[in-house]
Amino acid sequence: MADGRKTVQTRAKSDNDAPARKRLPRNEREQMIVREATRFFAEVGFEGQTRELARRLGVTQPLIFRYFPTKEDLIERVYQEVYLSRWNPWWEELLEDRSMPLTERLSQFYKAYTTAIFTYEWVRIFVYSGLKGVNINRRYLALIRDRVLKRIMTEVRAEQNLPTPEEIPLSEREIELAWGLHGGVFYIAIRKWIYEFETPEDIEGVLEATVESFVKGAPAVMRRLLEGDQTKAKAPGLSLDNSTI
Asked: pTM value?
Protein backbone atom coordinates (compact mmCIF):
# COMPACT_ATOMS: atom_id res chain seq x y z
CA MET A 1 0.00 0.00 0.00
CA ALA A 2 2.81 2.36 0.87
CA ASP A 3 4.41 1.76 -2.50
CA GLY A 4 1.06 2.43 -4.17
CA ARG A 5 0.62 5.76 -2.35
CA LYS A 6 4.17 6.71 -3.27
CA THR A 7 3.51 5.99 -6.92
CA VAL A 8 0.34 8.12 -6.89
CA GLN A 9 2.12 10.97 -5.14
CA THR A 10 5.04 10.79 -7.56
CA ARG A 11 2.69 10.89 -10.54
CA ALA A 12 0.77 13.82 -9.06
CA LYS A 13 3.99 15.70 -8.49
CA SER A 14 5.09 15.02 -12.04
CA ASP A 15 1.76 16.28 -13.40
CA ASN A 16 1.99 19.43 -11.32
CA ASP A 17 5.51 20.08 -12.48
CA ALA A 18 4.57 19.80 -16.19
CA PRO A 19 4.85 23.17 -17.93
CA ALA A 20 1.54 24.85 -18.66
CA ARG A 21 0.53 25.11 -22.30
CA LYS A 22 1.68 28.42 -23.72
CA ARG A 23 -1.13 30.89 -24.24
CA LEU A 24 -0.74 32.41 -27.69
CA PRO A 25 -2.02 35.84 -28.67
CA ARG A 26 -5.31 35.59 -30.51
CA ASN A 27 -3.90 36.47 -33.95
CA GLU A 28 -1.11 33.90 -33.61
CA ARG A 29 -3.52 31.18 -32.54
CA GLU A 30 -5.79 32.04 -35.46
CA GLN A 31 -2.91 31.86 -37.95
CA MET A 32 -1.84 28.54 -36.47
CA ILE A 33 -5.33 27.11 -37.02
CA VAL A 34 -5.43 28.40 -40.61
CA ARG A 35 -1.99 26.98 -41.44
CA GLU A 36 -2.86 23.54 -40.10
CA ALA A 37 -6.32 23.62 -41.72
CA THR A 38 -4.65 24.35 -45.06
CA ARG A 39 -2.37 21.33 -44.71
CA PHE A 40 -5.25 19.21 -43.41
CA PHE A 41 -7.69 19.99 -46.25
CA ALA A 42 -4.94 19.55 -48.84
CA GLU A 43 -4.20 16.10 -47.45
CA VAL A 44 -7.68 14.66 -46.78
CA GLY A 45 -10.08 16.97 -48.62
CA PHE A 46 -13.06 18.89 -47.30
CA GLU A 47 -14.70 15.82 -45.82
CA GLY A 48 -12.06 15.97 -43.11
CA GLN A 49 -13.65 16.64 -39.70
CA THR A 50 -12.77 19.58 -37.47
CA ARG A 51 -12.50 17.05 -34.64
CA GLU A 52 -9.49 15.50 -36.35
CA LEU A 53 -8.09 18.94 -37.15
CA ALA A 54 -8.33 19.84 -33.45
CA ARG A 55 -6.48 16.65 -32.54
CA ARG A 56 -3.67 17.54 -34.92
CA LEU A 57 -3.47 21.02 -33.48
CA GLY A 58 -3.49 19.73 -29.92
CA VAL A 59 -6.49 21.88 -29.03
CA THR A 60 -10.18 21.29 -28.39
CA GLN A 61 -12.79 21.42 -31.12
CA PRO A 62 -14.69 24.23 -29.33
CA LEU A 63 -11.54 26.35 -29.45
CA ILE A 64 -11.51 26.13 -33.25
CA PHE A 65 -15.17 27.18 -33.33
CA ARG A 66 -14.34 30.10 -31.07
CA TYR A 67 -12.25 31.50 -33.93
CA PHE A 68 -14.31 30.13 -36.82
CA PRO A 69 -17.98 29.59 -35.85
CA THR A 70 -18.58 27.12 -38.68
CA LYS A 71 -16.49 24.85 -40.86
CA GLU A 72 -17.54 26.99 -43.83
CA ASP A 73 -16.03 30.04 -42.14
CA LEU A 74 -12.73 28.18 -41.79
CA ILE A 75 -12.82 27.09 -45.44
CA GLU A 76 -13.46 30.70 -46.48
CA ARG A 77 -10.43 31.83 -44.51
CA VAL A 78 -8.31 29.14 -46.18
CA TYR A 79 -9.50 30.46 -49.56
CA GLN A 80 -8.49 33.98 -48.58
CA GLU A 81 -5.06 32.85 -47.40
CA VAL A 82 -4.17 30.33 -50.10
CA TYR A 83 -5.70 31.98 -53.16
CA LEU A 84 -6.46 35.67 -52.78
CA SER A 85 -3.42 36.55 -50.66
CA ARG A 86 -1.14 35.15 -53.37
CA TRP A 87 -2.76 37.17 -56.12
CA ASN A 88 -0.41 39.87 -57.36
CA PRO A 89 -2.09 42.92 -58.97
CA TRP A 90 1.15 43.49 -60.90
CA TRP A 91 0.25 40.46 -63.05
CA GLU A 92 -2.69 42.38 -64.51
CA GLU A 93 -0.52 45.41 -65.22
CA LEU A 94 2.08 43.18 -66.87
CA LEU A 95 -0.46 41.63 -69.23
CA GLU A 96 -1.51 45.11 -70.41
CA ASP A 97 2.01 46.55 -70.79
CA ARG A 98 2.18 47.09 -74.55
CA SER A 99 5.75 48.35 -74.36
CA MET A 100 6.70 44.64 -74.51
CA PRO A 101 5.78 42.03 -77.13
CA LEU A 102 2.86 39.86 -76.09
CA THR A 103 4.99 36.70 -76.07
CA GLU A 104 7.34 38.26 -73.52
CA ARG A 105 4.47 39.49 -71.35
CA LEU A 106 2.76 36.11 -71.27
CA SER A 107 6.02 34.30 -70.55
CA GLN A 108 6.79 36.61 -67.64
CA PHE A 109 3.25 36.31 -66.32
CA TYR A 110 3.15 32.52 -66.35
CA LYS A 111 6.59 32.20 -64.81
CA ALA A 112 5.53 34.44 -61.92
CA TYR A 113 2.08 32.87 -61.66
CA THR A 114 3.31 29.28 -61.53
CA THR A 115 5.90 30.20 -58.93
CA ALA A 116 3.06 31.41 -56.71
CA ILE A 117 0.56 28.58 -57.24
CA PHE A 118 2.54 25.42 -58.02
CA THR A 119 2.37 24.14 -54.45
CA TYR A 120 0.95 21.01 -52.83
CA GLU A 121 -1.67 22.91 -50.85
CA TRP A 122 -2.83 25.22 -53.66
CA VAL A 123 -3.34 22.49 -56.24
CA ARG A 124 -4.88 19.80 -54.03
CA ILE A 125 -7.31 22.15 -52.28
CA PHE A 126 -8.39 23.46 -55.67
CA VAL A 127 -9.13 19.94 -56.95
CA TYR A 128 -10.82 18.80 -53.73
CA SER A 129 -13.08 21.87 -53.80
CA GLY A 130 -14.37 20.83 -57.22
CA LEU A 131 -14.98 17.24 -56.16
CA LYS A 132 -16.74 18.19 -52.94
CA GLY A 133 -18.81 21.02 -54.39
CA VAL A 134 -17.10 23.70 -52.32
CA ASN A 135 -17.18 26.90 -54.37
CA ILE A 136 -13.48 27.74 -54.04
CA ASN A 137 -12.67 26.56 -57.55
CA ARG A 138 -15.68 28.27 -59.16
CA ARG A 139 -14.87 31.59 -57.54
CA TYR A 140 -11.23 31.37 -58.48
CA LEU A 141 -11.95 30.33 -62.07
CA ALA A 142 -14.25 33.34 -62.42
CA LEU A 143 -11.39 35.53 -61.20
CA ILE A 144 -9.03 33.97 -63.76
CA ARG A 145 -11.53 34.47 -66.58
CA ASP A 146 -12.17 38.12 -65.73
CA ARG A 147 -8.68 39.26 -64.72
CA VAL A 148 -6.46 37.10 -66.91
CA LEU A 149 -8.15 35.42 -69.86
CA LYS A 150 -10.12 38.42 -71.06
CA ARG A 151 -6.98 40.54 -70.82
CA ILE A 152 -4.98 37.98 -72.80
CA MET A 153 -7.49 37.88 -75.64
CA THR A 154 -7.84 41.67 -75.65
CA GLU A 155 -4.06 41.93 -76.00
CA VAL A 156 -3.97 39.33 -78.78
CA ARG A 157 -6.45 41.46 -80.69
CA ALA A 158 -4.46 44.62 -80.06
CA GLU A 159 -1.19 43.08 -81.24
CA GLN A 160 -2.87 41.86 -84.42
CA ASN A 161 -4.73 45.14 -85.04
CA LEU A 162 -8.06 43.39 -84.69
CA PRO A 163 -11.25 45.11 -83.43
CA THR A 164 -11.30 45.95 -79.74
CA PRO A 165 -13.76 44.23 -77.37
CA GLU A 166 -15.67 47.53 -77.29
CA GLU A 167 -16.17 47.26 -81.07
CA ILE A 168 -16.85 43.53 -81.12
CA PRO A 169 -17.27 41.80 -77.73
CA LEU A 170 -15.07 38.83 -76.95
CA SER A 171 -16.82 35.61 -77.86
CA GLU A 172 -17.00 32.44 -75.81
CA ARG A 173 -14.86 30.71 -78.43
CA GLU A 174 -12.10 33.30 -78.01
CA ILE A 175 -12.18 32.89 -74.24
CA GLU A 176 -11.92 29.12 -74.74
CA LEU A 177 -8.67 29.66 -76.67
CA ALA A 178 -7.27 31.37 -73.58
CA TRP A 179 -8.62 28.60 -71.35
CA GLY A 180 -6.66 26.16 -73.51
CA LEU A 181 -3.45 28.05 -72.81
CA HIS A 182 -4.12 28.47 -69.10
CA GLY A 183 -5.37 24.93 -68.61
CA GLY A 184 -2.31 23.50 -70.34
CA VAL A 185 -0.06 25.36 -67.93
CA PHE A 186 -2.07 24.27 -64.89
CA TYR A 187 -2.04 20.64 -66.00
CA ILE A 188 1.68 20.51 -65.24
CA ALA A 189 0.80 21.08 -61.57
CA ILE A 190 -1.98 18.49 -61.77
CA ARG A 191 0.48 15.88 -63.01
CA LYS A 192 2.81 16.62 -60.12
CA TRP A 193 0.52 17.06 -57.12
CA ILE A 194 -2.48 14.91 -58.09
CA TYR A 195 -1.15 12.14 -60.33
CA GLU A 196 2.35 12.18 -58.81
CA PHE A 197 3.70 11.83 -62.34
CA GLU A 198 6.93 13.22 -63.68
CA THR A 199 6.99 16.86 -64.77
CA PRO A 200 9.59 18.74 -66.82
CA GLU A 201 12.63 20.02 -64.96
CA ASP A 202 12.88 23.05 -67.25
CA ILE A 203 9.49 24.54 -66.39
CA GLU A 204 10.44 27.98 -67.68
CA GLY A 205 11.48 26.57 -71.04
CA VAL A 206 8.19 24.68 -71.31
CA LEU A 207 6.23 27.83 -70.44
CA GLU A 208 8.06 29.84 -73.07
CA ALA A 209 7.35 27.22 -75.75
CA THR A 210 3.69 26.95 -74.72
CA VAL A 211 3.22 30.71 -74.86
CA GLU A 212 4.99 30.99 -78.20
CA SER A 213 2.77 28.28 -79.67
CA PHE A 214 -0.33 30.10 -78.44
CA VAL A 215 0.71 33.54 -79.68
CA LYS A 216 1.61 32.22 -83.12
CA GLY A 217 -1.51 30.09 -83.50
CA ALA A 218 -4.28 32.07 -81.80
CA PRO A 219 -4.39 35.13 -84.14
CA ALA A 220 -5.23 33.09 -87.24
CA VAL A 221 -8.06 31.35 -85.41
CA MET A 222 -9.32 34.64 -83.98
CA ARG A 223 -9.40 36.28 -87.41
CA ARG A 224 -11.55 33.44 -88.69
CA LEU A 225 -13.85 33.68 -85.69
CA LEU A 226 -14.22 37.44 -86.03
CA GLU A 227 -14.88 37.22 -89.75
CA GLY A 228 -17.59 34.65 -89.03
CA ASP A 229 -19.13 36.88 -86.37
CA GLN A 230 -19.11 39.88 -88.73
CA THR A 231 -20.75 37.81 -91.46
CA LYS A 232 -23.50 36.76 -89.06
CA ALA A 233 -23.97 40.35 -87.96
CA LYS A 234 -24.57 41.41 -91.57
CA ALA A 235 -27.15 38.64 -92.02
CA PRO A 236 -29.22 38.73 -88.80
CA GLY A 237 -31.90 36.51 -90.27
CA LEU A 238 -29.44 33.66 -90.90
CA SER A 239 -30.18 30.74 -88.61
CA LEU A 240 -27.46 28.96 -86.65
CA ASP A 241 -28.18 25.72 -88.49
CA ASN A 242 -27.83 27.36 -91.91
CA SER A 243 -24.64 29.17 -90.90
CA THR A 244 -22.90 25.92 -90.13
CA ILE A 245 -23.70 24.18 -93.41
From this structure: 0.81
